[in-house]
Design goal:
With 337 residues, the chain is an alpha+beta fold. The protein is built from nine helices and seven strands, in the order ααααααβαββαββαββ. The protein has a five-stranded mixed β-sheet with strand order 2-4-5-7-6, covered by helices on one side.
Length: 337
């Protein structure tokens, strides 16, 4: 936009304004009133650049700057009025004008030309300046929105970490409490999971294979505390490692399966599928619902939905169906390689 504005300024100063001046009898005026014509030309260029550099930016600034911008406009009008008031010559009466009502009888041709050029300079400089300032304001708004979205995403990501750490530590506590043989292997997986959380916390995107491996480890740790009443089916088919995804995005739904779809006395099954088709990620979960109300039980899903809307607006499709006693999630995201 800066280069475009510069090209427009050059076109106006080198082509448009000289062309408008050439349409008036400038040769006769310049020959007879050289100093006046030079000063008038310099003044018009001065007005143009003052408007572009100071006046219009001031009008978009604080109240004090707005007042300064309006004052500069009034000063430029006053100076032009004084300049046009200089009497270069007294026109001789024309006998052919007798009996004809003349419009603006006190304004001479060079004065009309000066005011016309002044209005053209004002209009053109304001048009270009407003265009530039509007784009600057839009750019600032986009930058502010991007910073706000980034901060919001970081907040959601920060909320996820203690949430999953608490649930996983709770599972490990149960294993050690019962002196389960899988306690130590589960602890090793937990350490690996914490390493992933630590390394991915400073990245906006991670390879989908790393996120898939984290999901695999999480499912293995959670499965160790289950009895024979619950079956878990995990199907991951990722072949394109160049695809990137925000860390800790899909685990929300996986964690939800183990939080609401497990019962020690009733049979249930958990089905988790993750695959990619070209640059499209396909993810789904299915689990039975056991009505155990917990504090903040919808926070994780709402959190994930907001992250999706911020990161992939118009590029994702999330369908959640919980009409029966089966909770189904289907997520499709169009990723970039």
């Amino acid at each position: 936009m800066k280069n475009l504005a510069l090209y427009i300024d050059l076109a106006f100063c080198l082509v448009v304004l000289p062309l408008m001046v050439a349409l008036s009898p400038v040769e006769r005026w310049f020959h007879n009133f050289t100093a006046y014509m030079v000063f008038a030309g310099v003044w018009l260029y001065f007005v143009y650049f003052i408007n572009r550099v100071f006046t219009i930016p001031f009008l978009f600034g604080s109240n004090k700057k707005k007042i300064s911008g309006i004052a500069m406009i009034l000063i430029s009008v006053a100076v032009t009025l004084a300049l046009s008031g200089v009497e270069l010559y007294i026109p001789k009466p024309n006998i052919h004008d007798q009996g004809i009502v003349r419009r603006l009888p006190n304004i001479l041709q060079y004065q009309q030309a000066l005011w016309s050029l002044f209005m053209i300079v004002e209009a053109f400089s304001f048009a270009v300046g407003l265009l530039v300032q509007t784009n600057i304001q839009k750019a600032r708004l986009r930058a502010a929105e991007a910073e706000r979205d980034k901060a919001e995403i970081e907040l959601y990501k920060a909320q996820i970490k203690p949430h999953f750490m608490f649930n996983t530590l709770n599972s490990l506590y149960g294993l050690f409490l019962t002196q389960d043989n899988n306690a130590l292997p589960s602890l090793e997986k937990f350490i690996s999971m914490m390493r992933y959380i630590h390394t991915s916390s400073n990245r906006d995107l991670v390879p989908i294979s790393e996120e898939a491996e984290y999901i695999r480890e999480y499912v293995e740790v959670q499965s160790l505390r289950l009895n024979e009443m619950t079956s878990v089916n995990l199907n991951i088919d990722i072949r394109n490692d160049s695809l990137l995804i925000p860390p800790m995005l899909l685990v929300t739904f996986v964690e939800n399966c183990f939080k609401h779809g497990v019962s020690p006395v009733q049979k249930s099954s958990i089905d988790i599928r993750l695959s990619e088709d070209g640059h499209t990620l396909l993810f789904s979960t299915s689990n039975r619902i056991f009505p155990v109300k917990r504090i903040g039980e919808h926070m994780g899903i709402d959190n994930c939905r907001k992250r999706l809307e911020l990161i992939y607006p118009g590029r994702y499709e999330l369908i959640i169906n919980s009409a029966s006693d089966i909770y189904n999630v289907s997520l499709k995201i169009r990723l970039k390689s």
